[in-house]
Amino acid sequence: MKRVDDFRLRFGKKEYVPIVVGGMGVDISTAELALEAARLGGIGHISDAMVPTVSDRRFQTKFVKEKLQQYKYNVANPDKSKVLFDLGCLAEATRLHVGRTMEAKRGEGLIFINCMEKLTMNAPRETLRVRLSAALDAGIDGITLSAGLHLGSLALIEDHPRFRDAKLGIIVSSLRALQLFLRKNARLNRLPDYIVVEGPLAGGHLGCGMDWASYDLATIVAEIRDWLCAEQLDIPLIPAGGIFTGSDAVSFLEQGAAAVQVATRFTVTRECGLPEKVKQEYFKANEDDIEVNTISPTGYPMRMLKNSPAIGAGIRPNCEAYGYLLDSNGSCAYIVAYNREVAAHPHAKKISVMDKTCLCTHMRNFDCWTCGHYTYRLKDTTRRLPDGSYQILTAEHVFRDYQFSTDQKIALPE
Ligand SMILES: Cc1cc2nc3c(=O)[nH]c(=O)nc-3n(C[C@H](O)[C@H](O)[C@H](O)COP(=O)(O)O)c2cc1C
Q1: Which residues make Cβ contacts (< 8 Å) with residue 23, sequence separation at least 6?
Q2: Ligand 1, atom 14: nearest CA belongs to which residue?
Q3: What is the mean pLDDT of residues 187-202?
Q4: 244-255: per-residue pLDDT in tens?
Q5: Which CATH number covers residue 160?
Q6: Which residue in 61, 161, 254, 265 has the most C-beta neighbors within 10 A?
Q7: Which residue's CA is the closest to the ligand 1 atom numbered 17?
Q8: Arithmetic mean of pLDDT, 354-369
Q9: How do residues 233-244 score in pLDDT, each as one tens digit?
Q10: Is residue 47 within 6 Å of ligand 1 at its C-beta?
């Protein structure tokens, strides 16, 4: 009976425990969580989602306050096209977040950063270039391109001195998306160092549609693996989404995966950035407390707990402070939905917006409880305490359980 520890992820001559803790924005996959994964010989992710906000919280900078101050005059204006990010501040926040994390790194593993293309920030190309370059400047081991097709992202950093030495990977949910990515980037003569194949059971945004239940991770992985083989492309494949036990991971590794990417089981660890009371909500959840909905302004379906405060909240858009989802025209689907509701209820003190949510504000405040499909199984991974709450785990405990368990077993904490 094999265990995850019988396998290794290889990048060149280096070997790693084949467990990747996936990126979870906004600062749900904290530096502490990523550092634990690296210390234990695997790969951890931080996320650059809303990085100025994260920097304010971590390092007492004032990026958000200063941006709001600058654009305060625009708060009541539905046109947000003038609310631009200061690229210097964005670079500084990224360098702080990444730099301090890398300085603290111990052990043999790696730390990557998750960069979502859908964070278009009112100037998609300029802001993404700064995010990627600043992360490389600050010494990140690798960048995982996510939430988008990233057809032009690699070209934005092709002149960076670390373009060929840092590990660069992409998350895809279909062979078609991968083929498109490779075709568009062929000119750069630089293949991705790894491909995360994310299936329909993952947390966060989903790369498939509302018909997610008709897809199956193992089938997508096999299709991509066979195609890469036929094309003689040797790129490590990393399946993600619903890999809940060490045995689940082993079955992918035996089918040729180089590693697995996991996240949900780490949402209830001490190192995870979710507030303690939200971690208890994750533990408590039953299967029918979880839904995939379309309230994210990104246009991608998103999985979350049905009792997330973000659902149905009708707060005023907060783009002067945040504005991460503003497209190149300065608009966001939440602003449209919000303005429609305000116009329909002109005298209401409080309105509710059901079809979209102000994702920036709610992710910032940990009020959008995005989660993986198997969140309802988290209660089986710990003990119930005398007061009825669930015992929070450590990242080390969960990591080692993935690494060493067999027979679909899950080790309970001491
Ligand atoms: C709370 C949470 C937040 C997430 N946020 C992101 C994100 O910001 N970017 C991203 O690419 N994936 C995100 N994901 C997806 C994970 O990185 C990972 O690929 C996936 O959840 C793995 O499946 P599992 O949760 O079933 O283990 C998130 C997942 C969770 C559970």
Answers
A1: 29, 45, 46, 47, 112, 113, 114, 144, 146
A2: 204
A3: 98
A4: 999 999 999 999
A5: 3.20.20.70
A6: 265
A7: 22
A8: 98
A9: 999 999 999 999
A10: yes
